[in-house]
Amino acid sequence: MIQDSAALAALCASLAEEAYVTVDTEFIRDKTYWPQLCLVQVAGASVAAAIDPLAEGIDLTPLFDLLANPAVLKVFHAARQDLEIFVNLTGKVPAPIWDSQVAAMVCGFGESASYETLAGKLAGARIDKSSRFTDWSARPLTDKQLSYALSDVTHLRVIYEKLSKRIAKAEREAWVQEEMAILTDLKTYQTDPDAAWQRLRPRTNNRRFLGILKELAAWREAEAQRKNIPRQRLLKDEALLEAAANAPKSANDLGRMRALTKGMAEGSVGQAILAAVERANALPEADLPSLPDKADIPGGRTALIELLKVLLKAKCDTHDVAQKLIATSADLEILAVEDEPAIHALAGWRREVFGNDALALKRGELALTVKGDAIRIIRL
Q1: Where is each HRDC domain found (predicted)?
Q2: Domains (ranges, CATH) in the chain?
């Protein structure tokens, strides 16, 4: 357990000599907008340590320097949330990185291989899950809690070495690197308050309603970030939708809303709601948002969508890769209607595995049949 700056600096200096280090974090987020970092676990070839970011006076700069060191590969499992934490703390994405969950998905471990699954199958380890729901902000941590936390980086070294060999043997390093490019793109972690309304999945395309909803959601997102509290604790989704539907113009209107308490209606929250509604009502019709048009799927194309699903399953079985990494159901619907849509399935390695054959199927240059228990592809 590293709880002082000198020990952390010595550890990171040692790890900076490694070809790769494994990294994991423990955090809590139930009372804050931004995740609160409670523990960072790192492991090299001969050392594993838990770094206590809550220790009084500790300077995490050596850790951040290690995460930014271009000569040291940082290996995570399901990296996105861990990376988001470091982006919030430093403004930068750790790099270079390697995600064992993504790697597992491209070499036969299913849709979302868990760490426990990979640890069991590749490292022969059983993870004691009893400490999973620990309050990681509480101190002191027990030996059992620390052992659980460190197991997330010690077994990960074996997982990385075995998975990376499989990836190399299958010549799929470029596949993994395409995915890592997305994870190391700073845009992946940027939250735009102006886009927050889309998360609410409104069911109407009334543009004035959507304009009010957009203003309300943008205010809530920015205010939740500023106060560092969960957006739902500031104001529930139901209140945003009700306000967008009723467009209140006065405190009396707010008082009639079921989703608002009296204190909210009469206080700063109520004032913010009225201001957001006023801003939206002042917008000209041309500046109001709208929902994207759904692809109009002709009757005959629904059968094509089903054929594309079969082709996707067959290609993923052949290449031993997870289907959701290639294309979603929405991607297939767009592909059935449009000739060259801008979807992931028609770019990079996904196009090689599935996209080109999907287009050939649409053009009538490919057919599907059954031989034994398997789907067979016939070139016409």
Answers
A1: 206-287
A2: 5-189 (3.30.420.10), 193-287 (1.10.150.80), 299-379 (1.10.150)
